[in-house]
Write a structure and sequence with these properties.
- There is one protein chain.
- With about 250 residues, the protein is an alpha/beta fold.
- The protein has eleven helices and seven strands.
- Strand 4, helix 2 and strand 5 form a beta-alpha-beta unit.
- The chain is globular and about 45 Å long.
- The two termini are about 30 Å apart.
Length: about 250
């Protein structure tokens, strides 16, 4: 079984996907604001990350999605909600398109669209592929993701946390997974209740979402989260937990 942490005992089941360079513990700031009587959360770790650090694999979006569905089956979850951050938001789109009838709702938090990032500039790509080579480089990545708005100590702690929880070999593989994978044609027309959240200071913008995910998923909706960039689980955790749970409760049946 893929590594995961269970939290809560509620009737509403939720699969949660973390972002690049992180593991399930990225969501710990949300825990005090989660309704554990209404929800049961399964915070999954990808191969090479966190509780799955010793599990080897090809580190693709397809593999993560397959592991997620296997986990749901092992938990005997016939229907469930999805929450995914960044690269995890990309996984969310794959899973929703694969088994739409099992998905009660989905909340994509600052998600990478299913088309990947085909126009990424070469220097940024190279930076991401080699960021793991030094804590300083990784700290720069996290600082930039938060729009360089916060104390540098936070970014340094994030880099240390990432390196402690992640197999160094998978950083580049997962970079290529979210940057180069394009399965947009597979998700077009998928009908699941979907809410897309973007931070007001993030490089993943509302306009980008309108051109991609909101176009592909009929009836999907968008909300811009204030006072945060790419990491609302750290920047505004109580608000993020509140918004996610409110949407899921709207689609609990």
């Amino acid at each position: 079984m893929i590594g995961h942490e269970m939290y809560g005992t509620g009737e509403q089941k939720v699969l949660v996907f973390h972002g690049w360079g992180l593991d399930h513990s990225a969501f710990y700031p949300l825990y005090p604001a989660l309704d554990t009587q209404a929800f049961t959360f399964a915070f999954m770790d990808y191969r090479g990350c966190g509780l799955s650090r010793d599990q080897k694999g090809c580190c693709t979006i397809a593999e993560i999605a397959a592991d997620a569905l296997e986990l749901a089956d092992q938990l005997n979850w016939k229907s469930f909600h999805l929450v995914g951050h960044s690269m995890g938001g990309m996984v969310l789109q794959w899973v929703a398109a694969a088994v739409p009838l099992r998905i009660k709702s989905a909340v994509a938090v600052t998600p990478v669209p299913a088309c990947g990032v085909p126009d990424m500039e070469a220097p940024r790509r190279q930076f991401l592929l080699t960021a793991v080579e030094s804590p300083q480089g990784l700290a720069m990545f996290f600082a930039g993701g938060a729009a360089n708005r916060h104390n540098p100590s936070w970014a340094k702690s994030m880099a240390a946390k990432s390196l402690a929880a992640t197999d160094r070999e998978v950083y580049a593989k997962y970079t290529l997974a979210w940057a180069d994978t394009n399965f947009a044609q597979k998700v077009v027309g998928t009908r699941v209740p979907l809410k897309v959240l973007v931070g007001e200071h993030d490089t993943i913008t509302a306009e980008m979402m309108k051109r991609t995910i909101l176009k592909w998923f009929p009836g999907s909706e968008l909300e811009v989260l204030g006072n945060c960039a790419h990491y609302p689980m750290f920047e505004t955790p109580i608000n993020l937990a509140t918004v996610c749970q409110a949407f899921m409760m709207e689609h609990k049946e």
